[in-house]
Amino acid sequence: MKRSFVGVILLCAILLMNIVFLQLLVHQYYFENYVAVLTYMGIMFLLFPLALWIYKKEKYKGDHSHEKE
Amino acid sequence: MTDQKRKIPVEEDNYTHNINRNNERSLDRRGFMKTLVGAAGVFAVASLPWGTLAAKELMGLSDKEYPHKKIVDVKDIAVGDSVEFYFPSEHDSAVLIRLEQNKYVAYQNACTHLRCPVYWVKEKHTMVCPCHKGKFDVNTGAPTAGPPRRPLPGIVVEVKDEAVYAVRVKRYEA
Ligand code: FES
Prior knowledge:
The complex is a heterodimer of chains A (69) and B (174).
Chain A: H1 6-30, H2 34-58, H3 65-68
Helix pairs in contact in A: 1-2
Chain B: H1 2-6, H2 24-58, E1 69-73, E2 82-86, E3 93-100, E4 103-108, E5 119-121, E6 126-129, E7 134-136, E8 143-145, E9 154-160, E10 163-169
Bound molecules: FE2/S2 (inorganic) cluster (FES).
FE2/S2 (inorganic) cluster (FES) binds next to loops of chain B.
């Protein structure tokens, strides 16, 4: 059985970006750059549907049991 | 013959023959991806309170007007001197500095590092925090040395009837 890890790797990258952007967001809040805070929040909110989309796309990759049936 | 043995009998009393064990690993991977998507969602929600606070600041809701407060009479503060006062509440210590005949600046003087009181050093023409030797520019309130990274919040002052009044706390403009 061949498995595809593309989805896992992409989602891990998204998690990393989440961590990085949240850190930046909190820092920018304390630096009082509120526009930057809102931008980062926008990015965070775009990352979630992106993750969902990747998940939906990769869900059945490498799973051949469905093909056999 | 061996093939025959391995074959799972499909009988009425076999309730497990429909479990496909080959799928276990791929479900594992899928479950992991699900967790990652969930984490992305949690992160998005976690950024929400910061965003709301930021939006609130941007819309100027925190730029409140406080009742004007008299700091000192003009005759009681010489050019180059400073007075301490409290604005907007009696717990927010602040400092007023008369730089020139008609130029006054005022800041909330809790250091932006660890909130020690910052004071005005006339000889060095700078504001100094005694705790960790933080320094602030007197014209802008921007940190110039030491650990502080954010400027001191400025206070708008007004001279009226031979006295100096505190009007409001300035919003920091980047
Ligand atoms: S508290 Fe002012 S420099 Fe640390």
